[in-house]
Design brief:
By secondary structure, the chain is mainly α. It contains nine helices and three strands. Its main location: membrane.
Length: 309
């Protein structure tokens, strides 16, 4: 591992905090929503209860995806993490759509006379929920970044959208207490748009990794610069790469002096591979090829041109 903590360790820490936080928020929101007569907080409690399920999905997905390759799956289980991210994006999308539809229905009803005014306890719990969810976002995001886990990062953004939803509860409860009950559904619709956008972004990224999307030109240029910096490389022949699960696979070739021995060529290939893995930690696999080039003046000129390109 090239990370300070293993994926297994991070997963255990994240899952424990995630589960504890969501169970706590579910209980306290249900209690506050019932006692303080807040429909918004009761809806938020149901949302928190669904988060317990999403945490379990994340845990199982990351746990399975980090299993070692075997005879049946020689390339490992890494893509299962992208599948997990897709499932979580669907959970997010469903939650956002539900919040948005509920808000639209309340506005279309257009009758605020029958809406009750929630108590101050509901407002306090909603503010507490915002603080806890935002804290959970940064906690999970930090670990997700440290091990480059797509599923953990998706779960982190899930916490951020939950914090936004709780802000909607705060606005709605506060608005109702100030005499503007329709602020609740209006805020819910705006927040739902952000939740849906996040869900679609997570979905698109996960699908791109499953279908092995090619690396971008900026990364390809960085790889070329690393290869050409190695002593003995005359020019870059080709660079191809693809995103797969939470890592990158690279196929690259370069020109060397045709008068080099096999041992010298092998040493340069190993040096290129080592530099790529060291300077771009997300690369998990390198296929390196060396092609002979006669060290004539014309070939040196061609090599220089390739370096400049």
């Amino acid at each position: 591992m090239r990370t300070e903590l293993s994926t297994e360790t991070c997963l255990k820490k994240v899952s424990l905090v995630d589960l504890a936080g969501n169970v706590f928020l579910t209980i306290i929101k249900f209690a506050a929503g019932t006692l303080a007569n807040s429909a918004a907080l009761l809806s938020d409690a149901v949302h928190s209860a669904s988060d317990v399920f999403s945490t379990l999905v994340m845990y199982v997905g990351v746990k399975v995806s980090t299993k070692e390759p075997n005879k049946k799956y020689p390339y490992g289980y890494g893509k299962l993490e992208s599948v997990t991210a897709i499932i979580m994006s669907m959970i997010l999308f469903s939650a956002g759509a539900g919040i948005g539809i509920s808000g639209i229905q309340k506005i279309m009803a257009g009758n605020s006379d029958n809406l009750t005014t929630p108590g101050v306890f509901a407002l306090i719990v909603a503010l507490l929920s915002v603080a806890i969810k935002e804290g959970m976002f940064w906690y999970i995001y930090r670990f997700g970044k440290s091990v480059n886990s797509q599923a953990m990062l998706a779960e982190a953004w899930h916490q951020r959208t939950d914090a936004l939803a709780s802000i909607g509860s705060v606005v709605g409860i506060l608005g109702a207490r100030l005499g503007f009950p329709l602020l609740d559904p209006l805020a819910a619709i705006i927040i739902a748009v952000f939740i849906l956008k996040t869900a679609l972004s997570i979905f698109a990224e996960a699908v791109n990794k499953i279908i092995d999307r090619a690396i971008d030109d900026e990364l390809k240029g960085q790889i070329k610069q690393i290869i050409i910096s190695v002593e003995g490389v005359l020019a870059v022949h080709s660079v191809r790469g693809k995103y797969t699960a939470d890592s990158i696979r690279v196929d690259a070739g370069f020109y060397i002096n045709s008068e080099m021995t096999v041992a010298e060529a092998t040493e340069i290939k190993e040096c290129v591979k080592y530099k790529l893995l060291e300077e771009i930690p997300t690369i998990s696999y390198c296929m390196i090829n060396a092609y002979p080039m006669k060290n004539s003046a014309a070939n040196r000129k061609a090599a220089l041109k390739k370096k400049l390109d």
